[in-house]
Every structure is written in C-alpha cells, then in structure tokens.
C-alpha cells in the first residue's frame, strides 16, 4: 500500500517538476509567492510590491490571501507538506512557535538581515522562539487595545472622554439617558471578552500587576485583577441591548451605523469602521484609571511578521523582500496606506488617528494572555474568555473567574505552582 | 486461453472489477484513517511530530481536567442533541410522512416544501437562523413582541439556557425533509389493501399508525436512526457557524466535533495546535460511533418485518 502511495507521489512530483521546469524556461524572472490572512489589504500590498519590484528588477511578488480564521491551519499544513509560500505573514507568540519550532522558517539575524536592528526588543520578542531566542520574522504592526469613540455623538450630547473610571460610568449614564447605546460591545463571540477586558481595564490592572505575574508575586486571584473585573461587571448595563446574544459582526455594525457611542476594542478597528462608514468621525482614548490624574494605560501586542520559508529555493530573492519589509521606507508606506502603527524605529505617521495611537503607546502594558499565556493548554485566553463571558451573563463572580484562571495556568506555569 | 475453466475466468473477471475500487478505498479512506490513528500515539508540537508516547494522549483525555471536563460536557450535549433530534426530527418526520402519505389537498406542494431546506447548504441555514434569532431585530423576537409576549423574547443564541435548543431547532428545520422522505417511501411500500382492510375493521387512525404503519416502516426507522446517530455525534457545521468554535456562551453549545477541532487545529484567538490529543479524541470518537452504529443496526434489523 505504502509502495503504491510512494510511487504515486513520485509520479506527482515528476509532473510538478516538469511543469515547474517549463515555466522556469518561459520566464527569466524570479517569482515569489507571498501569503497572508489580510485579504482586505490586497490593493495596498500590490502598491507596496510595485515599489519593491521597481527597486529590485527581476523579482516579481504574487499576493495570495486566505481566510483569517483558518490561515494558521492552511499555512502550517502547506509548510508541513513542503508546498508553502516563499515569503509569508506569520502571527506572533504561541502561533509563531507552532510554525517556527518545526524548522519551517529561516532564522533572521544581524548577518542575513541587518534590518532586525530597526525594531525594538519587545517587537522582536513577539517573533522569536522562546527555546532558542532566535528571531524568525520581522514584525509588521503593533495593535493597541483601547476605546474607540464617535466624536460627533460625544459632541452632540456634550460629553468628553473620561479621565477616571467614575467619569466613564457617569458618561455612560448620561448617554443612556439620552437614548444612545454607550458601548456597542456584545459578548456572544468568545474572543471579544478578552478584548473588552484589556480595552477597558488595563489602567486598573497596571504594569506592576503584569510584572508581578511574571515574577510569581501575584496570580489572577490578586485584588487588582478581581477588583478590575468587579468594575467591568458594573459596566455591563451600558453594553449593547441583549449583549449576551450580540456577536462581533453585530456590534461592529451597531457602532459603524452610529447607533452606539463607544467600542471597546483594538486600534485595528478604526480602519474597519471607516471602511464600513466613511462619514464616521472617530477618536480613541485609553482605559480610564481609578482616580482622575493617575496615568492611563493601553495594552499593546504585535500582530505578526514577515518570514522566509526555510525550504524555499529562491532564498536570495525572498530574503531581499523580507529585508525590504523591515526598512523605515516600507514602514512609512504601511502606516500611511493601512493606518497601522509600524514598529520600525523612526517611522513617523501622518494620519492623526495613527499619531494618537502612537502617543497612547508611550504608556502601555502587554495584551496579557496573548503575550504571556497562549503557549500551552489550557491557554490563559481560553480561560479568560469563557470566565468573563460567564461573569457578564451573571453566572459566576469575579473572584471565581480569577481562581479558575489561576488553577488552569498553574498546571504548566511554575511561578503559580505553590 | 481455451483451456481456462469458466470458474477461473469468472474469478479473474471479479478480481478485475473489484481491484480498482478497493485500491481507491485503500488510498483515500483506509490509509488516512490509519495514519490519523498513528498520530495519536505521538507527542506533537504544532505540526512537528516528536517522541512516541504510547497511550499517554488517550489517558490525558480522561485524567487531565482541562481535557476531560470539556469532553464530558460535549459528550453530554451530543447525547441531548441525539435524543432531541430523535423526537423532533425523526418523530416529526414520521408524522409529516404519514400526513403526506394520506395525500391531503396540495400534498405535492407540501412534499416539495418539506424537502426544500435539505438542499440548502449549512452556511445558508446558519446565516438565516442567526438573522431570525437576532436578539434585537430578529424575526422571532419581533413576532413575540408583536404578539404581546415580549417577556418571552430572549437573546436565544447568547443565553446558555436556550442556545443549544436553538441550534437543535435550526438543525431539525434544515433536515426534517430527509427522514420524511425516507418514511414516506417506506409507507408507500405498504400494500393499500392492508391499510384499507384495517380501516374497514374499524381501526382508529392511531391504531393503524401504531400497529400497522410503524412496524411495517421499520426498515426506514433503522436507516433514519443510524444516520441521525452518526449526524448527532459528528455535529460540527451548525454550532461552528452559529455559536463559534468555543461553543459560546461559555461552552453551553460545545459538542465533540468542536472540541476535536480546537484540540487538533487550535483556535487562532485562544489556543494552540495539538495533533496528538486531537487524533486521540478522533480515534475514540470513531471507535465509539462504529461500535454503536453497528450494534444499533443489528438490533433494529431484528425487529424489521419482511413484506
């Protein structure tokens, strides 16, 4: 049986080689394939690649986009089968590990990609394997968890971004009294519960809480975490009506249609909202601190990076492309066209919305579960998402959520084992 | 070749006919299943296969709470789905078939109407029911409000008490035409004289249904039950499309198909890929379904009456 399978695969390989050889004769150019989950950025990438092709005659780049939810599966299956792209967008942290660890990606360092020096350490850490500390992709954007608001609705009802948690509650009350839904958010889509926590509670959690988690001084039963969830529980009356049945798409529509004043989410939402409704006037603010005058925090994570397939036979051209994707010249193009925050040092954004996000990033903590606890099962994200969803449905308490998360993570995280 | 006996010639001919389908089955069915089984005996990191671990992955599924809890919860949900669909989908299908069999006014139209949803893809059905069940502008809550029953209007898919029932209902709406058609075909095999003589003897409708139609349509019941059992334990599309990969809200619509997918392929926004435990769960599920389906078929066959 295996012999037949092997013979079949040899025949298939021969056909592929023949076709590949013929096309090689037909064009003297090197054609690189580029895979991504960002199908909506096709037009932007085509402009980027034109600029690259102009600077590097003889290399052509073909853009191929895939459905985001299944991208990781499609990519890892293709790489395992030896049919992956030459250059690809990969995600960060735990998702990167599942692709980098089996050796599918080329390690990047100062020798083969001097552009690694253009990135801050936290960005490179997101694209490194914890086992060997090597970098496997050049980061493309950071995302910031914050509150997006409709400036026209705020002006119309005479309210301004809150400076403290109590001001946020008062602002919600005022908006609701005037018939405006304060937050468009719903909890039916599980991962939305994690975004809500970091968009609204980062200032209440604090950078010290993150440091204490990593050193083992605190776990999720800590009063800072339980207290923050308690505050969130008080805010749920100001979410979308019937929020437990509102999924991500419905809450996006609610906000884009101008029916709700705020959206607790990521900086990536801004461009999506503007695409859905170009007339929207948007602003962003960080999660409010407990008391007015205290510093407010956002939560930051890196989206992913550009990587070279370790088994590509067009290594030289592929590396050229990835190095170009690490230059300030490209970072400026990316930030200008896609309204993303480029992590490349020295990139200055023109769009006011991007500038505003970059300003908020100066005082940031990590997007906790993704950055630190999404490497093993049960992942911190799974525990947090289900716990918060249950708490907001009124079926568990903040203290129980904290205990449940701690218990789950303690099965593999040594600082929590006591 | 004239000395070749007819028996030999027959054997060669049979071999010639049987080999290609057997080869196709072996390459595309048996080989993938066996290789998936073999994955379950290794530790995996993403898609890279690491050490041989024997039965460890299988043991983990029962002993480590973060595997065992969702699996047992999902298994319970699969059982509920099977029981509920048995009543609503197959039982409803049987009654619909009887209704159509009696050829009421417009039965040709009704026959098509009942079967129509079956040809829709799950993606369309999921989208349609998500819209109908939308808490704020869905037709279901709209109708309840209009009828003055606003207190009964719920966020159906977001409430842990109603979400699974809503999915079961949508599934029954989608598939009820199939058992109906199978039962109808079974009923049409029952000779008219049998039914007519029962009616002449003064049997009531219920008696005819219970004592004549139901036993004589037993082969249809065997087929529809077996397929329903397999469908209920393979259930994936509708929960995936309507309440997401985690079985929202907080696991109340989680079924084994979703648990398997999350284990093996991971979830972009929450978990990691693990082919070892995923394959172990798939293997157990396959063995369980094969065993129960076989036992049920043998048992149900026994009560069938040859016409």
Structure overview:
Chain A: InterPro entries: Bact_solute-bd_prot1 (IPR050490), SBP (IPR006059). Chain A: Its main location: periplasm. Chain A: Belongs to the bacterial solute-binding protein 1 family. Chain A: Residues 1-28 form the signal peptide. The complex is a heterodimer of chains A (418) and B (307). Chain A is an alpha/beta fold. Chain A has helices at residues 2-26, 42-55, 68-80, 93-100, 121-126, 151-156, 165-177, 192-205, 207-215, 223-235, 248-256, 268-276, 315-324, 328-338, 352-360, 368-372, 380-392, 398-410, and strands at residues 30-36, 59-65, 87-91, 138-150, 181-183, 260-266, 282-285, 298-308, 364-366. Chain A folds into two domains: 30-141 and 302-351, D-Maltodextrin-Binding Protein, domain 2 (3-Layer(aba) Sandwich), CATH 3.40.190; 144-300 and 365-416, Periplasmic binding protein-like II (D-Maltodextrin-Binding Protein, domain 2). In chain A, α2 (42-55) links the parallel β1 (30-36) and β2 (59-65). The longest helix of chain A has 25 residues, at 2-26. The radius of gyration of chain A is 23 Å and the shape is globular. Chain B has two domains: 2-40; 55-306, Orthogonal Bundle (MetI-like fold). Chain B starts with 5 loop residues before the first helix and ends in a 5-residue tail after the last helix. The model of chain B has no long low-confidence stretch (mean pLDDT 92). At the A-B interface, α1, α3, α4 and α17 of A face α1 of B.
Compose a concise summary of this entry.
Chain B: It comes from Bosea vaviloviae. Chain B: Keywords: Cell membrane, Membrane, Transmembrane, Transmembrane helix, Transport. The complex is a heterodimer of chains A (418) and B (307). Chain A has 18 helices and nine strands.
What is the CATH architecture term of the largest domain in chain B? Orthogonal Bundle
Q: Oligomeric status of the shown chains?
A: heterodimer
Q: How large is the count of helical segments of chain A?
A: 18
Order the strands across the largest sheet of chain B as they lie in space: 1-2
Shape of chain B: flat
The CATH first-level class of the largest domain in chain B comes to: Mainly Alpha
Got a strand count of chain B? 2
Number of domains of chain B: 2
Helix content of chain A: 40-55%
Distance between the termini of chain B: 47 Å
- Rg of Cα set of chain A: 23 Å
Instruction: Give the low-confidence spans of chain A.
Output: 18-26
**What is the highest CATH level, the class of the largest domain in chain A?**
Alpha Beta
Silhouette of chain A: globular
């Amino acid at each position: 049986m295996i012999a037949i399978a092997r013979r079949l695969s040899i025949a298939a390989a021969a056909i592929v080689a023949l076709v590949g050889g013929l096309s090689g004769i037909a064009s003297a150019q090197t054609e690189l394939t580029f895979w991504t989950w960002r199908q909506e950025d096709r037009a932007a990438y085509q402009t980027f690649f034109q600029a690259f092709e102009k600077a590097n005659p003889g290399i052509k780049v073909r853009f191929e986009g895939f459905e985001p939810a299944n991208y990781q599966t499609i990519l890892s299956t293709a790489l395992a089968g030896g049919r992956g792209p030459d250059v690809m967008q990969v995600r960060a942290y735990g998702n990167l590990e599942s692709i980098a660890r089996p050796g599918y990606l080329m390690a990047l360092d100062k020798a083969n990609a001097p552009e690694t020096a253009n990135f801050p350490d936290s960005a490179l850490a997101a694209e490194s394997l914890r086992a060997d500390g090597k970098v496997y992709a050049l980061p493309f954007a950071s995302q910031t968890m914050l509150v997006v608001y409709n400036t026209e609705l705020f002006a119309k009802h005479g309210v301004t971004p809150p400076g403290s948690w109590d001001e946020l509650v008062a602002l919600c009350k005022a908006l609701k009294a005037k018939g405006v839904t304060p937050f468009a958010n719903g909890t039916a889509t599980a991962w939305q519960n994690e975004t809500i926590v970091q968009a609204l509670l980062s200032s209440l959690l604090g950078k010290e809480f993150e440091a204490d988690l990593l050193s083992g001084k605190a776990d999720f039963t800590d009063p800072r975490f339980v207290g923050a969830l308690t505050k969130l529980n008080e805010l749920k009356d100001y979410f979308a009506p019937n929020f437990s049945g509102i999924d991500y798409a419905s809450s996006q529509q609610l906000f884009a249609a101008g029916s709700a004043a705020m959206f607790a989410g990521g900086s990536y939402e801004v461009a999506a909202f503007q695409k859905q409704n170009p007339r929207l006037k948007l602003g962003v603010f960080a999660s409010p601190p407990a008391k007015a005058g205290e510093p407010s925090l956002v939560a930051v994570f890196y989206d992913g990076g550009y990587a070279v397939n370790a088994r590509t036979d067009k290594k030289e051209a592929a590396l050229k492309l990835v190095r170009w994707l690490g230059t300030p010249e490209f970072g400026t193009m990316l930030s200008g066209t896609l309204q993303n925050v480029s992590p490349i040092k020295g990139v200055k954004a023109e769009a006011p919305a991007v500038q505003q996000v970059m300003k908020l990033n100066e005082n940031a903590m990590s997007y906790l579960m993704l950055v630190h606890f999404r490497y093993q099962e049960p992942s911190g994200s799974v525990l947090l998402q289900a716990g918060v969803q249950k708490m907001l449905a009124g079926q568990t308490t903040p203290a129980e959520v904290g205990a449940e998360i701690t218990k789950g993570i303690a099965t593999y995280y040594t600082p929590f084992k006591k | 070749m004239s000395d070749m006996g007819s028996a030999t010639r027959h054997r060669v001919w049979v071999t010639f006919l049987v080999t290609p389908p057997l080869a196709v089955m072996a390459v595309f069915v048996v080989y993938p299943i066996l290789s998936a089984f073999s994955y379950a005996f290794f530790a995996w990191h993403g898609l890279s296969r690491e050490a041989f671990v024997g039965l460890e992955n299988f043991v983990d599924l029962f002993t480590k709470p973060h595997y065992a809890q969702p699996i047992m919860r999902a298994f319970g949900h699969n059982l509920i789905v099977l029981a509920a669909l048995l009543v609503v989908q197959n039982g409803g299908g049987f009654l619909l078939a009887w209704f159509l069999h009696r050829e009421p006014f417009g039965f040709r139209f009704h026959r098509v109407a009942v079967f129509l949803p079956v040809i829709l893809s799950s993606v369309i059905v999921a989208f349609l029911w998500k819209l109908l069940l939308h808490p704020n502008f869905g037709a279901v809550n709209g109708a309840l409000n209009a009828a003055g029953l606003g207190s009964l209007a719920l966020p159906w898919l977001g409430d842990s008490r109603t979400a699974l029932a809503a999915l079961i209902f949508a599934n029954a709406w989608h598939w009820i035409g199939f058992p109906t058609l199978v039962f109808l075909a079974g009923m049409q095999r029952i000779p008219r004289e049998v039914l007519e003589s029962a009616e002449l003897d003064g049997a009531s409708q219920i008696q005819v249904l219970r004592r004549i139609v139901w036993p004589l349509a037993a082969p249809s019941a065997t087929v529809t039950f077996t397929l329903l059992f397999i469908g209920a334990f393979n259930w994936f599309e509708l929960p995936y499309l309507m309440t997401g990969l985690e079985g929202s809200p907080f696991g109340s619509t989680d079924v084994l198909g979703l648990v398997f997918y999350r284990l093996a392929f991971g979830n972009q926004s929450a978990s990691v890929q693990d082919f070892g435990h995923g394959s172990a769960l798939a293997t157990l599920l396959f063995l369980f379904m094969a065993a129960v389906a076989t036992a049920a078929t043998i048992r149900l066959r026994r009560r069938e009456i040859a016409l």
